[in-house]
Amino acid sequence: MTKSALVIGGGIAGISAAARLSDHIQVTVLEQEAHLAYHASGRSAALFEPNYGNTAVKALNRASAEYHQPYLTPRGFLLLGIARENDLFEKDLHDLGGSEISPQEAQAMVPILNTDHITRASFHDAAQDIDTDRMVQDFAKHVRANNGKVLTGQSVTSIVHHDNLWHVTTETDTFHADLLINAAGPWVDEIAQLAGLDPIGITPLRRSMARITAPGGHDVSKWPMFFGAGETWYAKPDAGALIVSPAEEDPVAPMDAWPEDMILAEGLARYQDFVTKDVTRPLSTWAGLRSFAPDRSLVLGQDPDMPTFIWCAGQGGYGFQTAPAASQLVADLALGRPPELRAEEIATFDPGRFR
């Protein structure tokens, strides 16, 4: 009988899976950094857009929607296109399910938009901001309320499976459990190899961000998030300022990511083409890693060669919006409980699809 689990990784993927598991078994979370959600989870654009992602991701979005409600506030999503991007705009319009509006109607929502340049626009009002910090902390509180442990500063140095138990050693201690949940973000393949298992081929992709002052002194708090067609850039209100991203996907090694000045400059230039107010020097810049499996769907469930090794990986840019349903699926599969998702949806996330 399963009695315990170790969860490696304290981002939204790991802490949500730990919370679900803690309702049934003893759980310990091991996070290498000094606090939870340090890497990708702490650098998220924090938007719940139910139509964002491929078909498999959208299934998790739908299953997560009800859980998200206490953490959401209205934002809206504005897609913008120019003449030479008509094909990209049409694809996004279809995928995201927004309603096409005129450039002038878009300008009424975001007054700085350049309607001499923008030829098409679409708006989707279902997109909402997520209170990501509160969600992470609530999952952590849930773990602790169930007598679980959430430990930070625990960098894993070795993993051994012996006598039907996982033995995970960090720089300060050794931990033992029946199940091992691999939610280490960009490091998931390295954790698998430490455990003597084959990697899946998770690729960390860097995405850079710049915070700029509110353009023209506008109150941006009620503006929607706005994107260029094909997601070549995006901008989002944040604490009285705007965050602007070039939305790049540059493969890098697992690391504490930092932005490339040239990439940021190119992204800000693409944003500048769509607005009438000049971009000033950024207030701050940063970068995060979005980790994708080869097919860009999440990897959730038992390793085909070691069923007590559970993958919770490949969240890409969908970690927060899929977390409620993804974590429940991971817990159900780990504990042998019937999942709520349909069998064909579960198969989409099965780690065995890569072997």
Question: Could you provide a short overview of the structure?
Answer:
This protein has 355 residues and is α+β, with helices and mostly antiparallel strands. Helices cover 28% and strands 29% of the residues.
Textual characterization of the structure:
With 355 residues, this protein is α+β, with helices and mostly antiparallel strands. 28% of the residues lie in helices and 29% in strands. It is built from nine helices and 21 strands. The protein has helices spanning 12-22, 55-68, 86-96, 103-109, 132-145, 188-194, 261-272, 319-335, 343-349; strands at residues 4-8, 26-30, 47-48, 72-74, 77-81, 99-101, 120-124, 128-130, 149-151, 156-162, 165-170, 174-177, 179-182, 203-212, 225-228, 234-238, 241-245, 250-251, 284-292, 299-303, 306-313. The strands form four sheets. Strands 5, 6, 7, 14, 15, 16, 17, 18 and 19 form a nine-stranded mixed β-sheet that branches. The protein has a six-stranded mixed β-sheet with strand order 9-2-1-13-21-20, with helices on both faces. A three-stranded antiparallel β-sheet has the order 3-8-4, with no helix packed on it. Helix 1 (12-22) packs parallel to helix 5 (132-145), helix 1 packs parallel to helix 8 and helix 2 packs across helix 8 (319-335). It is elongated and about 70 Å long. It starts with a strand and ends in a 6-residue tail after the last helix. 48% of the residues are buried.
